[in-house]
Structures are given as structure tokens and as C-alpha cells.
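Researcher: Structure for this, please.
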Amino acid sequence: MEKSNHSSSQENIESGAINLLKNCANVNKGDRIVIVGESGPDPFFEVELCDVVAQVSQKMGCTAEIIMTAPMTLDDEFPKNLASAMETADVTIFFSRLGDQQRFSSMPGAGKKIMTYTVSLDHLGAPFGRADYQVGRKIQQKLLKTLVRTKSYQIVAPCGTNLVSKLNPSEDFLKTAQTTTNFTVDLFPEMIFPPVNCLNLQGRVVFRHFLLSTGTRIYDNSALKINSDIIAIVENSRIVGFEGAPEEVKTLKDQLQRAAAITGGDPYIINSWHTGINPNTFYNGDPYANLEQWGTVAFGSPRYTHIHCAGNEPGDVCLQVFDATITCDDQVLWDKGEFVFLNKPEIKAIWQTDDGGNEMYQSSQSIGI
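Model: Predicted structure, C-alpha cell format:
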């Protein structure tokens, strides 16, 4: 990502911090807040974020401690100094990939844990960070209620991807069938819904542009550029064949096998999928300059459906499908990358206020692809 020139005003940046602390973390006067920043080479998050949120939290009558730590590698243990601090924290806020890596795992302490995706001060000060968190939360919950009733879905994209899943009518799409993997952290801002575990998935998925990791485990060369399309044939949620240039197919299969070896899982399994629900998601700069960093924030865009595969849940490879139309039963929820669920009258009533305060939900932003 290009270095921000901090075009957001200080007032807007502080407004984003208040949204995080008040509307998401629900902090109260006297609370102890641990703010985790990212150290190490090439951090994805601007270090100034920690200082801003610490200062705003102190204005709110809280105590704040900043702990800088690097993301975990495959052999690392959870940092002991951070674990100790979290044991007595009311809220832990991650401006670090460490929180993303642990989003499916339990962490120390009984306090609230929040993983942020405001990677820069400009993200915090933009509508992306300032849009009322509780509004986004209500929209996500309404979407989940819609998904719960779904008995079949289809994902179709311009690249040629066409995937269909028909579920047992007696099964509950998200609950009884246990088809989601829940997060152990809250996400700020609302970006996504818990991934839908793939059941009886059939069709074709096109590998295009690049592959990324799912962010749960860091491994070398996790971002793989794809030079020409590869079509994967999917039967019962597993890739059973590939079509494409032989050298490209070999490179792809090597990547899937290498990633699956981390957990000893099936390299060709399609684990789960989800799609962004935050139209304010944006990314300035060249995604190819740092694809994994791009993926840290871009995944919240409704243009971006990401499918997890290779290895045990949640998988260690993320493939990208852009501008998909996703139909659940007879309802189109995303149309060519637009989150049209927001246009339903009962959903519009949530975000479209008289003062226009949430009009920002109408527009989708650029993510560089």
C-alpha cells in the first residue's frame, strides 16, 4: 500500500477512533484497554494508529497500554507478555495481523477482543472507519437471518466461476448443519459474515489473478501470481480436475499441496467461502506491490468473494472471485459485485437516516482490481 499522506482530517480520524471504542468495543470509564500494534519488517498497519486510539481512549477515562509485537510464524507461541496483559484487560484491540491469525482460536483473558482492518489513519478517518459500527452490525445480523433460511445457493462470476450447493431441506443452512466457522474476535468495521463451510458444492471455479493465504498461518511465498486462467472442476466440495496450461496447473497444484501440508489436510478440498459486505472498503495503490497486505483490507469489499481451500479448516489458500452474483434460494444478495441486499426496504431503513448520516452505504469504493 502506498504510504498515506493522512488526507483525513484529525477530527475524522478521532471520530473513527470513537466509533471503534464506543460503538464496537463498548468501553466504559475506567476500562483497561490493551492496544496491539504490529512490529517487525514491513508492517501492514501504520504504527500511529495505536497512539491515536490510546489518546482517544484516555480522553474517555480509560487506561491504555500499547504492546508492539510481530505476527506469528508457524513455529511461534502466542507472545507471553501480551497474554499476561490480556488476562486483566477489559478490551484488546489489534492493529496487527496477529489478531487476524487468531480469529478462529481462543485467546487469553475474558475481555472483548477486536481485530481492526483500518490499516492506515486514512482508513480510520474515512467512511470505512467512521460509519456507525452498530448499523453495520445490524445489517450483518439481518443478512445472517436470511442465510439461515437458505436451502441452496449459486455463485456465478464473469470469470466463468459457477458453483452450486443444494442442501438437505431438513438442515439449517448456518446452524444445524454447522456450516459456519465462527470468529473469536469482533471485526472492525463490519466487513464480512462468518465463512460458510462448503457442503455438496458442485461446478467450476476459475483461478485467476493470484492466490493468497487465509491469514491464519504465515508461510513463505503465500501470494502466488497466476499468469493464465485455470479452471477447477468441483464435485462434492472437492477439486477433482484442472483445465489450463500444464505449467500453470503444476504450479497451482504445488501451491495447494504445500499449503495443505501445514495441517496435513486435503490439498484439493474447498473449505468455505464468504463475500464482503462493506461498500466503504477501499485500497489506494498497487495491489501487486504487496498482495497479502491488499488482502488484509480488500476482503471487506462486496466485489470480492473469497474461497478458502487446501488443508484443514479454515484452509490455508484463499482464491479470489470478483464481481460475483450470489443467489440464495430465489434472492439475489450480491449482483455483479454489488451488495444489493442493502437496497431491500427493510435494510435501507437501517442505514438511510433522515440526516443522511449513513448515505455512505450507497456507494462502493475502489480496491484496485
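Researcher: Any notable elements?
Model: The first helix runs from residue 10 to 24. The two ends are 13 Å apart (CA to CA).
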